[in-house]
Amino acid sequence: MDKRQKILLVLIGICMLAVIGVVAFQIFMPKPEIKAEDIEVSQRTQEEAQADTNTVTKEFVNIYFIGKNEHNEEIYKAVKREYCQDVDGSKVKFAVYSLIRGPRPEEQKKGIYSEIPRETQVISIKEFPDSIIVNLSSPFVYGGADSLYKRLYQLIKTVKLNTTIPVYLYIDGQRADVVGGEGIMITQPLSNSSLEN
After folding, report:
1. Whose C-alpha in 17, 27, 65, 196 is 20 to 30 A from the C-alpha of 178?
2. DSSP secondary structure string, 172-191?
3. What is the pLDDT of residues 120-158, one digit of tens each?
4. Which sign does the torsion angle of CA 89, 90, 91, 97 carry?
């Protein structure tokens, strides 16, 4: 064995001792304890989780306005509105208030309108286990019979879609069994056949 081979063997021996020392250090040294608060969760992940939660809890109600179909004929159009029970109360209450306020500007641009007079106000909406009373101001029943039929159907379709509880229409605190100058009769509770007299 020559001098170079001896030096090579010594170097290999030193390397082997160094590796054994590092492995032994890793095995026998105590590991630091990792606590839950030491682990960082990225902010983006938390925001995404919140967004997913918000998406799941979104609810909508449909409000009936009037628009035109492809043949330029008047039809009742359901418009979706985002609804939050904690903010807006019951679905039927939110739907009636939204109906009386009328279509939003972006909906109007699409040709959607309402026959309900702007002066109409919701006096009250009283909800009981077996009935709901929608009390509107008298401007709701002003105007011609054709317009009055349309706004009554807007109201009927909106309430029927948003509650299974019977709904009664009152005008200025009086049950509205006959409305308008032409004496339109309404069968109550409100239903799709309420105006078929």
Report:
1. 65
2. TTEE-SEETTTTEE--SS--
3. 999 999 999 999 999 999 999 998 999 999 999 999 999
4. negative
